[in-house]
Amino acid sequence: MIRSDILREIAPILHDHLVVCNIGLPSQELHMIDDNAKNFYMLGTMGLSSSIGLGLAMAQPKTVISIDGDGSVLTNFGTLPTIANNVTDNFILLIIDNGSYGSTGDQPTYAGKKTKLEDVAKACGCENVVTCKAEDTGATLQAAIDSKKMTIIVSKCESGNIKLDVITMDPVVIRDRFMNAVKA
Amino acid sequence: MSISTKIVDDFIAQGVNFITTVPCKQLAGVIDEVEARPEIHHVPSNKEDEGMGLCAGAFMGGKRPAIIMQNTAIGVTINTLATLTQYYRMPLPMLISYRGELREPVACQVEMAVHTKALLNQMLIPTYHFHKESDASELQEILKYTFMCNKPVAILTDASFWGGYGDQ
C-alpha cells in the first residue's frame, strides 16, 4: 500500500474529526478523496503539521488528527519533545512513514534507513507510540481515537505517488471554513 | 511594578491566552511572568518556527496567541511567516529581544541585528521598537492592532529597554 491507499481507507474515520494535513501530495490526496471543512490543508511550511495540530488540540476539546510524513517529522524533530512534554489527550499524530520524500520525487529519507521514528518518539518521552502496517492504519487510528489518550502512530507503507492536481483553494478560505468547523 | 509584569498584564488585558517562548537572557523575566500566570497557556518550544505552528493551531482553535523570541529567530522563521502566518492571514504578536544593539556584549549578536529591521521590512511586517521603558505604553495598542489586521507584528525590545545586562 502507498500513502494514497491509506488515506482512501481511513477517510471515513477522518471525516468526523479535525484534520491537519501535511504539505504537498498528502493534502492534495485528502482534498481529492474527501474535501470537507474539517480538513486544514497545508499549502506550504513543511514540517509544521504536528505543531499546528498540537496547538489546535490544546486550544479546544475536539479530537485533532495531524497527518504527517517521515520526511516532515525529520524536518521538525523538535516537535517530538514538545508533544511528549505537553500531553494533550485529544491529539493524534499519524506519521505515514514511506521512507521517502514523496512530494519531491521519492528521494529516500533517513527514516527509511537506520532511523526509526517510533524509537525517536519514545526516546523524546512520548508515551503512546504505536507502529502499524499500512493495512492496519484504520483500526489503529480508530483505537487511538477511542482511547482518548494522546497517541503517535507510525504507519509503515511503500513509497509511491498518484498523479493529481494541486489545491487551488485560497488559503484564507481554507482557514476560514476550517475555523467555522472547529466552532460548530 | 516591573516591566515584565506590565508587559504580561498588557497581554492578558488584550485577551492573549496562549504564548509560546524560546528563551533569551533579556526575556528571562517576562518568560517567568508568562509561566506564572494562570490566564496564559505557556508552551515552550524548541525552535521558533515550531512555535509559530503552535500559535497557528491555537488561533484556529479560538485562542489569542503570541510568541516571545530573540531576533536571531527572524532568520529561522521567514518561510513560516510567509507561507503560514501571512498566507493564511493569522494574527501573531511577536515580542522580540533585539540583541546586538547598544550595550550588547556579544559581537556575534550584531551580525543578525544589522539584518533584523531589513528582513522585517522586506516581509512587510509592521515593526515597533521599544528603546525606553516608556515606549511600552503602546503595547496594548499594538496588540489591538495585530488582532484587528490579522498579521504578524514585531515588537523589538533592545538592551536599553530592558536596562542593560545587569552587570554592565
TrEMBL record, chain B:
Keyword Transmembrane helix annotated: no
Record's keyword terms, sorted: Decarboxylase, Lyase, Pyruvate
Domain Thiamine pyrophosphate enzyme N-terminal TPP-binding, first and last residues per copy: 6-96
GO molecular function: sulfopyruvate decarboxylase activity; thiamine pyrophosphate binding
Pfam family, one: TPP_enzyme_N
EC number: 4.1.1.79
Record's keyword annotation contains Coiled coil: no
Top-level taxon of the source organism: Bacteria
Enzyme class: lyase
InterPro entries: Sulfopyruvate_deCO2ase_alpha (IPR022502), THDP-binding (IPR029061), Thiamin_PyroP_enz_TPP-bd_dom (IPR012001), TPP_dependent_decarboxylase (IPR051818)
NCBIfam families, per database record: sulfopyru_alph (TIGR03845)
Protein name: Sulfopyruvate decarboxylase subunit alpha
Classification of source organism: Bacteria, Pseudomonadati, Pseudomonadota, Alphaproteobacteria, Rhodobacterales
Gene: comD
